[in-house]
Amino acid sequence: MRPSRALVLLTAGLVTFIGMPAATAADLPTDLYVASTMPCDDSGSGTKALPFCTLGPAVKAAKPGQTVHVDNLPYQQEQDLTIDRSGAPGKPITYAFTYADQTPVSATDSLTISGTSHLVVKGLLVSERVNVADSHDVALEGIVEEPKWGSASLDIGGGSTDVRVSRSSFHKAVIGGGAQRTVLSRNVLRGSGPLSVVDAPGTVITNNHIDNVTGKVQGAGGCEETVDVRGASTGSSVFNNVLTASGNTTCTTPQLSVAQSATSGTRADSNLIAGSEGFATVAYQWAGTTYPTAAAFLAASGQGARDILLPTAASLSGADSPAVDSADATAPGVLPVDKNGIPTTDDPRVPNTGKDGGYLDRGATETNDGLTAATLDIDHPWAPTGTKVTFKAGSDSTWPTTMTHTVDFGDGTAPAVVRPGDAAGGTVTHVYASPCACVVKTTATAGNGRKVTKEQKIRVTVPGELATAFTIAPVLPAPDHGKYHLLRPLTYRVDPSRTVAPWGVKWVDVDYGDGRSAGGDGWSGGNGLRTARHTYEQPGTYEVKVTVTDVRGVKSTATRSVKVDYAPSGYVSTAPLRLLDTRTDRPIGHEYPYTVPVFDGVHLASRIPAGAAATVVLNVTVTDATQDTHLSVWPSEQARPATSNVNVRAGATSSNMVTVPVGADGQVKAQLNAGKAALIVDLVGYYQPNAGNRFSPIAPTRVLDTRTSGGALGGNKRRSVKVAGVNGIPADAKAVALNLTGTGATQEAFVSVFQDPLRRPHNTSNLNVEPGKDKSNQAIVPVGPNGTVTVFTNAGSTHLVLDVVGYYGKDAKALFTPVVPKRLADTRTTGKVAPGATTTVSGLPANAVGAVLNVTATDTTAPGFLTAYAFGGRVPAASSLNTLPGITVPNHVTAPVGPGGRVTIFNSNGGPNHVITDLLGYFTTG
Question: Is this prediction's pTM over 0.70?
Fold first, then answer.
């Protein structure tokens, strides 16, 4: 038993389509359509724009003269398709199923046509059977046995008349039950006893390939005749068929058998009968007498005058096949095309030995030239007017002497006949009088009328000199940029299409100004110059030079200066995701940069598709340091900057948020300045041009201080904090930037801030707290239910202070532009900031409204804090980082920017501090 499959034509089970009252002509289109693709509607009218989803409604609605177009429909196992709705004389109902490469693609287990007339069915895969009963004027075309599991049979009977089966294939066919005037033409039958005609007068069997597949032992698979005509099957005809026997058996059954009762008016001629090696077959049996040769058969019956008998089918293929150009084109049931749609073709390699000099082939298929494609070569596909252009037209035909080629030059002039009947191939020349972007079309026509075409563009220009011109611009992702499409920051497009090039371009060289270049003939095409992309490793100003060489060897060079910089971007929140934890492997050292695996292909850490992310926001933790040290993080493939991100004491743990562009390879680097330590990196979000949310900075605003409200947060406890819909932050804010401070911790622990109070992200944290030390870190957190975020600590208890410094959302105003980390200010060269005093940091763009900084306090003599705010503003009641005596403390700080691109940093009354300020990026509106 064959395995069950799944392809659907109909609803599950046995489905019979019963004729129902049809809608009026005004209700239905000329043709009906069925397609399983969306949108579709079984309750509609089956238009091309809105087809039926299944075949049933179309069968019920079909009217005489209509065609039902059935697209590739999925298959359901055990389906029986029954059609009993009739057309009218001259107006059949046609069911046209989709073909792909001349093969049907829709399938059913069986097809039953019962009690109907004037019907056409084209292109259907059948795995079990086709049955036609009590029907008239039915045409079956391209009904193909399902190739993998099928053993489909054809049964025509029940008094059916004028049934025509063509260009189809079956395992076996039985014509009987009083059927009259059945025509089988250009079919393939392959099975044991493949064709039986019983009590079916006027049956026409023409141009079929009928292969009798028998077993190796007599009785295995049967020893039936290849074609068996018996009973009252008078007036039948058997012409132009190829009858073969496959297998190795001792069967002695005839290939063509016509019983005494069927001989009256029955004719047989121009058949080719071939046995197989070791096959003890008899060619003919006529009226009960067997005949081993065509001559004996002709002498006794007057039939088979043009028959050919071969010992095996080995010689049936190739140009020497006796089946080629030897059939009777006047026989009943002859079709103008073969099983594969190839027209009747005269093979020039062999003489025409068919009746009356005809060249029809015997069997189901025509030998042909294999024509599938035309060819066209143009010596100057890009040239100025007045140039003599040579066109060479050809094809892949194996019979070139039968081909005719024409060329339409595409400029409105008359097409030229290039090569009528020339075996060597030919050319034609043409001179264009006016510039154009023309489309040249060649048509290759075979001797049987089959045509194939090819089009090629030609560029006809104004005469002049070669002059290179180009543009260079950043390549930015579109708002709908595919998540799986890789696009790195600092990628620029060089477009030389403005070059004036009267002649075709042979070569283009580009010097990108950063020590790298590209070039090749692949830049040029028949219709213009293609663009190229290049990703710079770091921002800067570069001299880009483009040199164009045309087909004559003439060169032209143009140079432009381009400022390469990061593009403003929106913020995309992600669930916290651990990228790296070297505690499970080995610590990092200070000798070499360590690659943080941000991207794997277009995925952030192999999990988040973000092929165009330009900048990542990380929470970086350094622990188990072997000595006092600091860590720098920067874009891969760039030089290490003179900045730092995390400072840590020997044996201690320190964390900080880091905003850093990804390098040209999609990664970032990290390196200690001394010693060794374990490195833990968590991804919390990323910035991408034309994506995400904008940002609005606000003066630092305190939203939680457990020292004055609610008490310390206990171990394994959570607490939700309202951050949106209050303090000027919109209720629909998507995320908030906040400064998180832990103080009064009873033991070492970590603190996490997250979106969903019911789903705490595991294995990630925002802050590591220690007894006796006030510690801060910034976090960007998606807003959760009712405008809240949730805080958690894993052990002991600690007081927490949360200061919001800005929000992301649809009403926010500013986009983020990253920079290569650079130092803006260092008071170690100007003197400490006294208690209660301020220092002003300048060097930001004048149009910046917010800054992302890494602020470090060092050489501290007493506990205290620093607060960053807009220059010219008032000191807010909040902090940006907490200072500790003798400890260097960094913190990621987001602050509003005041006039002149300046930020003020206030030092509390704890004691004097040195303050180091590094710029990571800035926000601008527009």
Answer: no
